[in-house]
Amino acid sequence: APRIGVLALQGDVREHLAVLGGLGADATPVRRPAELAGVDGLVLPGGESTTMTKLAVRTGLFGPLRDAVGSGLPVYGTCAGLVLLARRLIDAPPDQPTLGVLDVTVRRNAFGRQAESFEAPVAVGGVPGGPVTAVFIRAPWVESAGPGVEVLGRVEDGPAAGRAVAVRQGDVLATSFHPELTGDDRVHRLFVDLVRERRASTLRDDEPSGGG
Ligand code: GLN
User: Fold this and answer.
1) Does residue 212 sit within a domain?
2) Does ligand 1 lie within 6 Å of residue 80's CB atom?
3) Is 16 one of the annotated active-site residues of the chain?
């Protein structure tokens, strides 16, 4: 089974571990640099990105995290996790560092006070079976995205209609919303499949060529 870590400094870690475990992954919390070694993929949970970032810096995990995702470790960020992945932030503390592997500008707390928390159907590219129920909690959105970024899903109705809330850039997947809270494992399945494919191709590349 693919080994998938969940950054476990703060946020809804247990929910992600449960969904990943249900999909047959070997799901494991990551709190220390040593726990990053040997994972085939990583989930950055929802929570509070400023707190998560401070804790990662304080525990010495921030640098190893940036190295790991920067060298191609598949990663899926939900909500605060999307903020952590973004290259550029709007409405964040000016000194808040990010992992910077997703070529997007993310606006934190983008939906405003009236919409602290709500649900809406979002059709997500690569997820079969109709729209998912997207749960937004003080959610960010993707304000703009570079050419290498594929927008997989947008808000369909209301004042935020058209805003990008699910994106992918190679092996980096991110959503503004929280599929781990809905009992619907289809978005996580997309990520687990991506990790499995990456792992299979890495193992193939490691085989000695022409060997018997
Ligand atoms: N507003 C939070 C942040 O910017 C994200 C909220 C969430 O993860 N539910 O970190």
Assistant:
1) no
2) yes
3) no
For residue 163, being part of any structural domain is answered with: yes
Return the amino acid letter for 198.
R
For ligand 1, whether the C-beta of 16 sits within 6 Å is no
Which residue shows structure tokens 């193939």? 204
Answer yes or no: is the C-beta of 108 below 6 A from any ligand 1 atom: yes
Describe the crossing of helices 49-58 and 62-70 by its angle, rounded to 10 degrees: 100
- Per-residue pLDDT tens over the stretch 192-207: 999 999 999 887 888 7
Instruction: List the domain range (segments joined by +) for residue 165.
Output: 3-206
Q: Which of 35, 180, 188, 197 is catalytic?
A: 180
How far apart, in whole angstroms, are the C-alpha atoms of residue 158 and residue 184?
24
Token pair of 123 as six digits = 């059709």
Is 207 noted as a catalytic residue in this protein? no
Q: ipTM greater than 0.90, yes or no?
A: yes
Contact 45, 78 (CB under 8 A): yes
Cα angle at 202 between 198 and 203, to 5 degrees? 120
Q: What is the pTM of this model?
A: 0.95
Total count of domains within the chain: 1
Amino acid identity at 84: L
